[in-house]
């Protein structure tokens, strides 16, 4: 899948639309999700143009991957989520219902997050 320069996170990176920024390093930007699903719901995105985890893991440089993972750790720590716990999640593609085609990791915290994934209907 080709990268779409007009996706919403590309526009946030170009500062064409605002975001509630919580952290930034040289390779990653973190901001609050516009429709939070937990008291803490932060998105961490690479600054490079990667469609999803598949693209990022295959094509990002080691420095981008290291800096990105470090950013996720900092975000969780700065959110005060280490002691009680947090969940990270990345959706890739149709079955995972990925909405925005720019790789991102969700960081959820601030309440009991329940079971890992929803079970299929019986
Ligand atoms: P996905 O389903 O692709 O993993 O998640 C996309 C996430 O991006 C959703 O949780 C959605 O609420 C969030 N989102 C979509 N548009 C915007 C936006 O313009 N600003 C912010 N901060 N979050 C957004």
Largest sheet: 5 strands, antiparallel
CATH superfamily: HIT-like
Number of domains: 1
- Mean pLDDT across residues: 97
Summarize the structure.
The chain has helices spanning 8-13, 53-59, 62-78, and strands at residues 21-24, 28-32, 40-46, 86-89, 105-109.
Report on the structure:
The protein has helices at residues 8-13, 53-59, 62-78, and strands spanning 21-24, 28-32, 40-46, 86-89, 105-109. A five-stranded antiparallel β-sheet has the order 1-2-3-5-4, with helices on one face. It has a single domain (8-109), classed as HIT family, subunit A, CATH 3.30.428.10. The model has no long low-confidence stretch (mean pLDDT 97). Strand 1 (21-24) and strand 2 (28-32) form a beta hairpin. It contains three helices and five strands. The chain is globular, with a radius of gyration of 14 Å. By secondary structure, the protein is α+β, with helices and mostly antiparallel strands. The N and C termini lie far apart (34 Å). The site of guanosine-5'-monophosphate has 13 residues, from strand 2.
């Amino acid at each position: 899948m080709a990268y779409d320069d007009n996706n919403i996170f590309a526009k946030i990176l170009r500062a064409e639309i605002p975001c509630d920024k919580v952290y930034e390093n040289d390779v990653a930007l973190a901001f609050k999700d516009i429709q939070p699903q937990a008291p803490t719901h932060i998105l961490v995105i690479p600054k490079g143009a990667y469609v999803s985890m598949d693209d990022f893991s295959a094509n990002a440089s080691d420095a981008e991957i290291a800096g990105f993972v470090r950013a996720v750790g900092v975000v969780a720590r700065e959110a005060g989520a280490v002691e009680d716990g947090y969940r990270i999640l990345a959706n890739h593609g149709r079955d995972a219902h990925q909405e925005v085609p720019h790789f991102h990791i969700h960081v959820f915290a601030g309440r009991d997050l329940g079971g890992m994934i929803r079970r299929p209907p019986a």
